Amino acid sequence: MSTYTEIVKACVARHHYTPKTENIDSKIAGLKERGFKDPVKMIVSSPSILGYAFENIDSKIAGLKERGFKDPVKMIVSLPSILNYAFENIDSKIAGLKERGFKDPVKMIVSLPSILSLAFENIDSKIAGLKERGFKDPVKMIVSSPSILGYAFENIDSKIKYLKRVGVLCGINSTNVIENIPVILGCSIKKVKLTVGILFKHCKATPSVSIMRNCLFCPIQKQVLTSLEMNNILVTDLIRISKKRSENMSEVVDVLSDNDDRLSRLLCSS
């Protein structure tokens, strides 16, 4: 499918108009000049960009830089609708986040630009809901993992329920685990079960280390949580990536030290 066809289809589907070829070519060229590597993808995602004057786009990029955003182009690529946001609304969001205890709203927004589209009512509801579920410092959790703001409580509750069952079995406080590793709330139950299994094996291999310390510092367990896909997962990949990021290689060795390869059997059975 040609560049022109992709964009025209997107415009017709969303805005019921057919843009002129010369306007598309001009916009693509201008966006490339401003550092946007894939203008076509941007326009298909948000066809209204074709209606923005470059003067307005330049003003938005400059204004974002003035507010401390170091890479406005990357932000706009992630969330093209930012071009629609008035600076008055952006400033209001930054101020409102500070009022709620978030010390570095700019850093949060860089991590998750879609925060700019969240109503404060939703943010307040998420903070209150996390407190109701026993988390002492929801703000700190959200700072560590801003994407929590987009999670439905139904999904959060399912992770809490599972981890509470696990906590009863191994004697750990599931609330503390989530507070220390809030990214776990964004993982699938399947991935959480896998990491819990790895954690148990790791604890058996290092009995002198507390369960909480294992939970926080086991490099393989953390790697599965944060990045690896579940499909066709290989032990060799786990080891290779963990070695690159682990500051304590003995932890990896401890898990994989015996001949029957406990981790390999664990992964194959998951």
How would you sum up the global shape?
Answer: elongated
Order of helices and strands: HHHHHHHHHHHHHHHHH
Name the helicity range.
55-70%
Number of strands: 0
Q: Mean of residue pLDDT?
A: 76
Number of helices: 17
SS-based class: mainly alpha
> What is the terminal-to-terminal distance?
41 Å
Query: What can be said about the biggest beta sheet?
Result: none
User: Radius of gyration in whole Å, from Cα?
Assistant: 23 Å
Keywords:
270 residues; mainly alpha; 17 helices; 0% strand; disordered C terminus
What does this structure look like?
The chain is elongated. Residues 227-233 and 245-270 have low confidence and may be disordered. The chain contains 17 helices and no strands. Helices cover 65% and strands 0% of the residues. Helix 1 runs parallel beside helix 3 (39-45) and helix 14 (219-226) packs across helix 15 (235-245). The protein has helices spanning 3-15, 21-33, 39-45, 54-66, 72-78, 87-99, 105-111, 120-132, 138-144, 153-170, 174-180, 189-205, 211-217, 219-226, 235-245, 249-255, 262-269. It has a domain at 187-269. The protein is mainly α and 270 residues long.
Topology:
Layout: H1 3-15, H2 21-33, H3 39-45, H4 54-66, H5 72-78, H6 87-99, H7 105-111, H8 120-132, H9 138-144, H10 153-170, H11 174-180, H12 189-205, H13 211-217, H14 219-226, H15 235-245, H16 249-255, H17 262-269
Helix pairs in contact: 1-3, 10-12, 12-14, 12-17, 14-15
